[in-house]
Design brief:
This protein has 314 residues and is α/β, with parallel strands linked by helices. Helices cover 47% and strands 16% of the residues.
Length: 314
């Protein structure tokens, strides 16, 4: 009996030490990634928390919305801002739960992001805007249009994701709960947000030209992923499951403003055949296929992309 008690005590002690070590390592990783940098962003207090954003140029307002991959932020548009801000007042937020914006302990949904987009246009931009949105954000902005069409003048949709997704089922909900859990969920997030995995995501999923994936780019995504400390796992939990799904087909059928759809020809995770499906729904849109690009044609081929946007929005 005493021998069993000793074994149990020993096991508990080892388990406690192991948990303490893991927790300490997690805190150190987040601490290093959350050191202040020199980049100064404006802050807007929204219903979704403190939102970091930047404004460039003057003229008619243009809102740029980044994708929802791990480590995403407004930095996605760094190759487009200089050109676009010559003609427009460009607004570049970090979406709620991403980048330098507040990361809350909630389950993020497409509907929440749609509400945020309308709130941002009404309270920060304060007039109807042109919107360019990347990947899942293209789904969100379509929902925002459905909720309040008067906020948006023209739309540029870069490879919307919703046509190949669906509403979350029981299995997806279990995954979300696991990803949101304090210790295990944080560890799963840290594995997915490691520099090795970040490089793999950028080179195999997001960007076609491997020479563009520099150490600086990997570090930027790595840093932005870890901002907000352990709360960063909540956005990861939503984006890694189906909780960011938006049913956009009905909106596409009924949209009454000019819209443009852009796709990367080498996009493997969301292939250009999806653009064909959108074109079948609405033949009156403008459609562009960018060669030798994947998820981020605006980043990889910014010169042609910027010219396309200028032409479409004029």
């Amino acid at each position: 009996m005493n021998q069993n008690k000793k074994r149990i005590s020993f096991f508990c002690a080892v388990a406690a030490i192991f948990l303490c070590v893991i927790t300490t390592i997690q805190h150190i990783i987040f601490y290093k990634a959350n050191k202040p940098d020199r980049e100064i962003k404006k802050k807007y207090l929204s219903k979704e928390g403190k939102i970091a954003y930047q404004v460039y140029g003057a003229g008619r307002p243009l809102l740029l919305l980044h994708n929802t991959e791990i480590g995403a932020s407004g930095a996605e548009w760094q190759n487009n801002i200089e050109s676009l801000s010559r003609m427009y007042q460009v607004f570049v937020p970090d979406l709620p739960g991403f980048g330098d914006s507040q990361k809350q302990k909630i389950t993020y949904t497409a509907y929440q992001y749609a509400l945020f987009i309308n709130h941002f246009i009404e309270n920060v931009i304060q007039r109807p805007a042109f919107v360019v949105a990347s990947s899942a954000s293209a789904d969100f902005v379509l929902m925002a249009y459905a909720l309040k069409s008067s906020n948006i003048r023209k739309l540029v949709l870069i490879s919307p994701t919703a046509l190949q997704k669906k509403f979350p089922d029981k299995k997806e909900n279990i995954k979300r709960i696991i990803y949101q859990s304090p210790l295990l969920g944080t560890q799963l997030f840290l594995w997915a947000a490691s520099k090795k995995e970040m490089k793999k995501c950028l080179t195999e999923k997001m960007i076609f030209s491997k020479e563009i994936v520099t150490k600086e780019l990997i570090q930027k995504y790595y840093t932005m992923a870890h901002r907000g400390n352990q709360n960063a796992r909540f956005t990861f939990a939503s984006s890694s499951t189906q909780f960011l799904y938006a049913d956009i087909e009905k909106v596409l059928k009924e949209i009454k403003i000019p819209f443009c759809v852009i796709w990367g020809e080498q996009n493997k995770s969301n292939p250009p055949e999806q653009m064909d499906l959108i074109e079948q729904i609405r033949k009156d849109g403008s459609y562009f296929l960018f060669e030798n690009t994947r998820m981020l044609p605006h980043y990889e081929n910014s010169t042609i992309f910027n010219e396309t946007i200028h032409s479409f929005l004029q």
